[in-house]
Amino acid sequence: MIRTFALVFGLGAGLGAISYAHNLRGSEAMNFKNPRTLAGQVNADGSVSRGTHFTVVHRGTGNYEMTFDEGYFANGCPVLTVTPLNSINTTFSVSQVRCNLYDAYFESAKGIVTDTEFNLIAVAAK
After folding, report:
1. Dihedral sign computed on CA atoms, order 50, 4, 33, 93
2. CA-to-CA distance for 107 and 15, rounded, in angstroms?
3. Whole domain around residue 121: which residue ranges?
4. Is-contact 108 116, C-beta < 8 A?
5. How many domains are there within the chain?
6. CA-wise closest residue to 116 among 89, 78, 79, 97
7. First-residue to last-residue Cα distance in the chain
8. pLDDT grade for 16, boundaries at 50, 70 and 90
9. Is the pLDDT reported for residue 2 higher than 70?
10. Fewest C-beta in 10 Å: which of 35, 76, 96, 109?
């Protein structure tokens, strides 16, 4: 139930950001008229528990590589949001390697690299 709430909350936040970006004046780069959205959930071992059109490789402790299917975001690179399910004591960073490839790194509040479950939302212009 908590995971479903987190996924729905994250999707709502992502769509709210698109709505906000759409209302900005004079900013063509953020003008999403018909966005394509992808959401999913990843287990601590890197297996995908929910979602399609992406794969995850668990590169090592706390290190995940996410690749989106070629053609799913055909007209541009997606904007990616990642949320660890145990976000109270987890810090993380996400970096874009290339258009459809991202790396995520997670560690505990004590600075110890750690595996964790996480949600993701990716959005791009259609």
Report:
1. negative
2. 28
3. 2-125
4. no
5. 1
6. 89
7. 31
8. low
9. no
10. 109
* Rounded Cα distance, 93 and 110, in Å: 15
Place of tokens 């729905």: 8
Q: What is the DSSP letter of 89?
A: S
CB 109 within 8 A of CB 69: no
Torsions phi, psi for 50 (to 5 deg): -145, 140
**CA dist 42 → 17, 19, 47, 91 (Å):** 22, 26, 6, 16
The secondary structure element, H or E, covering residue 111 is none
Task: Assign residue 121 a region (left: φ > 0; alpha: ψ between -120 and 50; beta: otherwise).
Answer: beta
41 Cβ contact partners less than 8 Å away, ≥ 6 residues apart: 3, 7, 48, 49, 50, 51, 85, 117, 118, 119, 120
Q: Which residue has the higher pLDDT, 31 or 42?
A: 42
**Coil, strand or helix: which one is 115?**
coil
For 13, the token pair is 């936040």
Q: Residue 27 belongs to a domain with what CATH number? A: 2.60.40
